[in-house]
Prior knowledge:
flat, mainly alpha, 4 helices
Amino acid sequence: MSLADILKRTCKKLGENNKPTYVVMAIATVKGICRPTFTMMDKTENPETKKYTALREGLTEVIAIPAYWACGELAGGLAKKVFAKDKALANRAATNLMFMGVCVAALFVIPGLCSVAIKPIMDKMGLKAPDKKDQPKKMIQEVPNTYSPVSLNPLLYKNKFPQMQAFTSRPQTGLRVGGL
């Protein structure tokens, strides 16, 4: 069997069984693999922070995949029971309610489960959130404004954002529209 035949068969099967739950579970699986990987590849971050963040992101997706599946299937099963007499309407309603179930999972169920489960799991593994209290916050440095007549008298005005001094909302050259 050639690669083209395998691809055709796979696409046909996916087209026949196109459920919202499958799509979201596939996305969650890719996120569960890629996000921790990219986090660990960050060369500028502290190694302890990288490990904690990557594990937390991976655990979130491990929780998300079954939550998506359960909420989608429960909502789809509800539609099949409610519309049992009309098969065509039941199939359409099941797909729509599966989508709604996946949305409910993303908005409420997964954040709730993650807030309950991730911290105890991370504590049992011995990982705590790295403290960032030691690191000083980066402050915007004030640059003296030497090109503004207002800045000559510091008692009148202290320019904290000199880059915004020359901002204007109208074009300085070209065609002016609207009489401005």
